[in-house]
Amino acid sequence: MRIDLRYPLAITEQPQQVLVMGFFDGVHRGHQQVLKTAKKIADERGLELAVLTYDPHPAVVFEKFDAPLTYLTTVDKKVALLTQYGAQRVYVMNFTSQLAALPPQVFVDDVLMALNPAVVVAGFDHTYGADKTVSDMATLPQYAKKRFDVVAVPAFPLDGPKVASRDLRAALAVGDVDLVNVDLGRVYETTGLVVHGEARGRELGFPTANIQTPMLERLPGIGIYAVEIQVGGIWYQAMASIGRNVTFGDGRPVTVEINILNFNQAIYGEHVVVRWCHYLRGEVKFTGAPALIEQLKQDQQATEAWFAARS
């Protein structure tokens, strides 16, 4: 169940529960470890599990952006994943300047206590309140004043670099979906609407579905990928291009075009889901259509071979 909150809170009395704090962009394996720890505690105590997360990202309050901020998981996707990992309530707190300015003791008294936690769980490096130097998980017991227990979950994994959302965003920017998928523990997904494009793919013998991606969803970097696409509830193997079609001119906008293997249906207006399975190559400016067609044939073979190796 999703519950939207804004500070100052106006919320009815909540049941005593185990409360997890975090932004959870991506709900990656590190986040999953925090949720697993909290779920175990909730089950042992016979309590329900709740999550406190935020929207938008705190960076929106503190920084200026030249382009819209995008996410590994939009709010709806994040809530669905948190619920999948055991959360019975997901509190989505509107992150505002007023909330960001709260001293840590006020944050605990006015926000956490309103959610009636028996235990508060978060990653070891989670912070809250205005002064991050005195508002981390090590100091939370001080502000809790014995009203709830505090559990800080160590970095994951223990034997290597921790999984972090910022690193996943950096890997995605350069097209390294293979690493992203490992760290997510699932295949990275985006959604979109099939719209009309230039129909150039059809002219080349490789008809494509042009995907209009929602503004808040983060796409992988420019390149060619082996993907799966869900149309009408059915998953199909495909190859995708994120790029500017530089063979046909400079300064063109970035588009997402997907050639579905062994598929010949008109699907304009369909809402689709795309799984970004494997990076094949970067975008190349070819001397003309014949060279591009030859490369597309190689890309199709590479895509088929990649899926065949995993069947």
Key structural traits:
six-stranded parallel beta sheet; alpha/beta; single chain; elongated; six-stranded antiparallel beta barrel
Order of helices and strands: EEHEHHEHHEHEHHEHEEEEEH
Spans of at least 5 consecutive residues with low confidence: none
Report the structural category: alpha/beta
Q: Give the N-to-C terminal Cα separation.
A: 37 Å
What is the topology, as strand order, of the major beta sheet?
1-4-3-2-5-6
Q: How big a fraction of the residues is strand?
A: 25-35%
Largest β sheet strand count, sense and barrel closure: 6 strands, parallel
Radius of gyration: 23 Å
| SS field, number of helical segments | 10
Annotate the secondary structure layout.
Elements: E1 2-5, E2 17-21, H1 29-45, E3 48-55, H2 59-62, H3 75-84, E4 89-94, H4 97-100, H5 104-112, E5 117-123, H6 140-144, E6 149-153, H7 165-173, H8 177-184, E7 188-195, H9 200-204, E8 209-212, E9 223-231, E10 234-243, E11 255-260, E12 271-281, H10 289-308
